[in-house]
Amino acid sequence: MARPRHWLDPLARRLLQASGELPSPPKPAKPIAPLVFDSPTVDTWQIDVNRASHSDWLKLPGCSNDQADLLVRLQRGGVQFSGADDLARLLELSAEQQQLWQPHLLFRWYSEPPNPVAAALDLNNASSLQLQTLGLSPERQQRLLRERSRQPFRDIADLQERLLLPAGVIEELIGKVCFGPAASSSSSGPELPLAKS
């Protein structure tokens, strides 16, 4: 049978421990913090391979202008890459370069080619109906037809000077128009009347 403990026992025990006559109770163990290993920071930016722009490609380490140009031209032609191996074979990438590029490449498959490039409109041979697609006002279209009948346009600077077009209009036309030799009047057919707006 256990001997009953006196109510002063805890107090007496603390006094004896404080005076050093009894050993102090062990301190509760501190929780051990989990080990955290320093890991290198991973740069996680990615480019969508089948939609990447020229500047996107140049972000990849060691990608040259020629490689970026080739990839963008292929993309415009509807070529798509299904994996890093396709890209590596095309560009003849070293194993080291493949390894550097791999974390930054995202491969998605698209049913449509990116930004189909419309053929430039030949201003020296375009019909009135075709000219309306450029967004020029009816007055500017009439002036263009009148000037073109006098002499074909040489280039976009000639167009700007002869039609007195502001820089903003010319900037909108860059890449959308070209200037071929004028077709003979017998083969060009009659001009369609301009739509009133």
Short description:
With 197 residues, the protein is mostly helical.
Structure description:
With 197 residues, this protein is mainly α. Among the domains are: 47-106; 121-188. Helices cover 41% and strands 4% of the residues. A two-stranded parallel ribbon has the order 1-2.
Secondary-structure map with pairings?
Layout: H1 9-19, E1 47-48, H2 54-58, H3 65-76, H4 84-91, H5 95-101, E2 105-106, E3 121-122, H6 128-132, H7 138-150, H8 156-163, H9 167-173, E4 177-178, H10 185-188
Parallel strand pairs: 1-2, 3-4
Descriptive terms for the model:
mainly alpha; two-stranded parallel ribbon; elongated
| Helix and strand run | HEHHHHEEHHHHEH
Distance N terminus to C terminus? 113 Å
- As a percent range, the share of strand residues is under 5%
Please compute the radius of gyration using only Cα atoms: 39 Å
Number of strands: 4
Task: List low-confidence stretches.
Answer: 185-197
Biggest β-sheet: strands ordered side by side in the sheet: 1-2
Percent of residues in helices: 40-55%
Q: What can be said about the biggest beta sheet? A: 2 strands, parallel
Total of helices:
10
Outline type: elongated
